[in-house]
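Problem: given the chain below (291 residues), write out its structure.
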Amino acid sequence: MTAASGSASSASGRDARLAPLITTLMALYARAEGNWLSVASLISLMADAAGAEPQAVRSSISRLKRRGLVLGERHRGAAGYSLAPATLEVLAEGDVRIFQRRRARVEDGWVLVVFSVPESEREKRHALRTSLTRLGFGTAAPGVWVAPGNLESEARHTLERRGLTAYVDLFRGSYLAFGEPRSKVREWWPLDELGDLYTDFLHHYRPVLQRATSDGLAPREAFATYVQMLTHWRRLPYRDPGLPLPLLPAGWTGETAGALFDELDQVLSPLAHKYAMAVVHGDEPPAAPAP
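Solution.
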């Protein structure tokens, strides 16, 4: 590997680590501030959230800008960034996934997506698979994807928004035969892998909740913990379609992890918001609680 390729690889890895944190910060605090944060605020918040260097933050957000996810804007002479309209829409949909987590019932049935994409439009096939994966669809057969029936509206809207409807047929129905649905969902979704991700979240953040509720966290630590916790969590609801509990393994860790997330959100979110707004407005950050 040459020095140049090594540097590019290092930058790519750094951006892969920082970009999700920047997205979380923008989702939480740019939207709370009229959809804009100054570059100075982002740099300060990223330093507090992840110890990120200013140049690394500038590089990562520039890549987000080139991808069309954020827009450069100046407010009152200050350079900053806003979230692109399409990004705002995706984040609004994500809020429902992350903070509400609607679980399907067996009687909701299933929604099926059947698609066929010409070889000359392989990028559309990739876009379709990416969209369906993010919606939580599982694979029943090549070109046939399945999800709980309560995701029909979200799936229809996402496919329309991404201009993919010409390649897709959408069906609603019930599973009739010739297998047992509880076994089938293990074929259609990687439940063991998903269960491991939930278990990892539990192992990592149970001690955090215990410490936060017993000893309390200093404001900066509460902010950093919340941003990193939310960034860790928010990919999981996109992997999990909210399958009916009777079809899931006994003691499904997703329920326990979801309850832990809700508790952490309740405890940490107000402290994190207060700290972040103090940084954004140039105020003195709140002091640590007295021992």
